[in-house]
Amino acid sequence: MLSTKESIRACNALALFQVMANNPETRRELIQAKIPCYFYPFLKPSGNEKPLEYLRLTSLAVLGSLTKDWISHYFYQ
Known about the structure:
This protein is mainly α. It is about 75% helix and about 0% strand. Helix 1 (about 5-20) runs parallel beside helix 4. The longest helix has 26 residues, at about 50-75. It comes from Datura stramonium. Pfam families: Rcd1. InterPro entries: ARM-like, CNOT9. This is Cell differentiation protein RCD1.
């Protein structure tokens, strides 16, 4: 069981990755380093408690930031 305090700390760390993912230069480096592979386990938490849901949403936000440039490049040309 993940406490609310632990969830907030993990979400704050993930938010830093989201900031880095918003920069095109660091986004490319994060993808090349296969950093998104570390976020996938957070997408499948075992339970529906609020702390786990916050962690899932923050992970999705980071992955969305990492794919932002790819989506605009391939779908909006």
